[in-house]
Amino acid sequence: MKKLLVCFSLFLLTNCSLFGSYTLSPDFPDSQSFFSSDNIKEKIVSKKIEDGLVVSLEWIGNAYPLETSKNLNGSISRFVIPYSRKTALINLKIDNKTKKQVTFDTSNVILKDLSEKKELKPLNIDFFKSLWPSFAVKNQEMLIDQSTALGEVIRTIARDRIITEETEYSSYIPFFRLEKNTKDIEIHVKLKIENDYKDLLFKYTKK
Known about the structure:
Blueprint: H1 2-15, E1 34-36, E2 44-50, E3 53-62, E4 66-70, E5 76-80, E6 87-96, E7 102-113, E8 118-120, H2 125-131, H3 140-156, E9 161-163, E10 167-176, E11 184-193, E12 196-206
Antiparallel strand pairs: 1-12, 2-3, 3-6, 4-5, 6-10, 7-8, 7-9, 7-11, 11-12
């Protein structure tokens, strides 16, 4: 427990020590920018399943920061990265303008690293709860950081969901960051549409 507390404190210090700045642009070891294999200028790959039903994946890459405190002059003094520097994000969008019910299950998502010959499953909410444990909070600043970060993950992370007729759904699918040498990846998504299953393949390559 003591080791976890130390790690948590270091995590906060690493991600929350920005002084005298009005913008958030934390440094990352690798931008990990991937683009559609079919269109090297696009990070969004869309699949039309049928009229009125489109599924899109957008490569986001590095997780985004959120400010948690400002100085009197309005500059940012503290920030957190809710999804952490350990992850790469993909934005899932399901636009269901049909009269059908679409079921999304995170267990039916796989990222295949073709370069490293690895398969990754999405990270779930329990992983991020372990990064932001409540028992490690010792003061008001840490409470604000922890609640902001975990609240953002809970609000935006992809979960098992039924997308009812004529509705839209958007969320982030987080994975562990890919290896530096990774060039080509595939993301496999299986959806249930009414009583039928549809396998979707999204291909990306590093520019």
